[in-house]
From TrEMBL:
Domain EAL: 23-274
The protein, known as: GGDEF domain-containing protein
Lineage: Bacteria, Pseudomonadati, Pseudomonadota, Alphaproteobacteria, Sphingomonadales
Residues of the full protein shown: 504 to 779 of 780
Amino acid sequence: VKSNGRGAACRYVPEIRERAEERRALEVDLGMALERGQLALAFQPVVEAADEHIVGFEALLRWTHPVLGKIPPDKFIPVAEDTGLIVPIGHWVIREACAWAAKWPRHIRIAVNLSPAQIDDPLLLEVVAQALADNGLEPARLELEITESLFLNEKVSTIERLAALKALGVRFALDDFGTGYSALGYLHKAAFSRIKIDRSFVSRALQPNGEASAIIQAIVSLAHSLDMATTAEGTETREEFELCRSLGCEQVQGYLFGRPMPPEEATALVAGVLVE
Ligand code: C2E
Ligand code: CA
Ligand code: CA
Ligand code: CA
């Protein structure tokens, strides 16, 4: 006899409860992670395609849980977003990233990811301005990465907050481009300096049907016509890199040129590099 709908539902209940409990435990633990020193930044190099020199780093959050060990951002960032913990954690990320960047040569920029909930935070502007001032960091060296999902419900306050940040002199990059809604109308509103082409296109770029490379080419020409630069994300092989470069991507980021690394290692990598 096949199990009826009810039987199936009963079997799933404990599993759902387990998952909900796991999630609640994660929320509680994440709430204490910052003060307990369990959060850290990793810096991934961003490289100029033409000469393969490092031109910046992207700050990526890492959480080492005392029992569960390393928890990937794709698992805990959503929890941080849902609980609002992303706001205080984000303040820490901004301060920490700016403090490290201040130790680097002046042509090396730092990119920091911002979730939509962080843009709604009324303290964000002050935290960014203070972090720049405290560390004597030129605003143009800080690039804030935001995704298209921010523009889903076009709030006036969002555009106003971005404009206020922009007025500080920081830059904006549009992250994960091509994976979201792409209504494109918002592109000029936030005055992006850069489009980051999502890894999903880069990793399919060499496939014989040529679709992904056609998309990369289209994104590059869109970017250029709006006076923006592009970064190809998730470049893992030299073939991918060379294709992206030939399609006009100015900068690349990916395992080929370096994985996210501890701040000390990133700092050593660019130490003594002089501005040309
Ligand atoms: P993202 O902003 O798109 O960051 C790039 C992700 O791609 C990083 O994953 C990076 O480690 C990974 N990656 C880079 N190069 C390669 C490659 O060649 N191959 C492959 N397979 N992967 C590559 P990570 O560090 O796991 O971060 C995942 C996401 O979590 C980020 O995606 C970002 O959306 C979010 N995130 C990380 N740190 C922060 C943060 O401080 N604040 C916020 N709001 N979000 C963050
Ligand atoms: Ca990013
Ligand atoms: Ca991305
Ligand atoms: Ca992302």
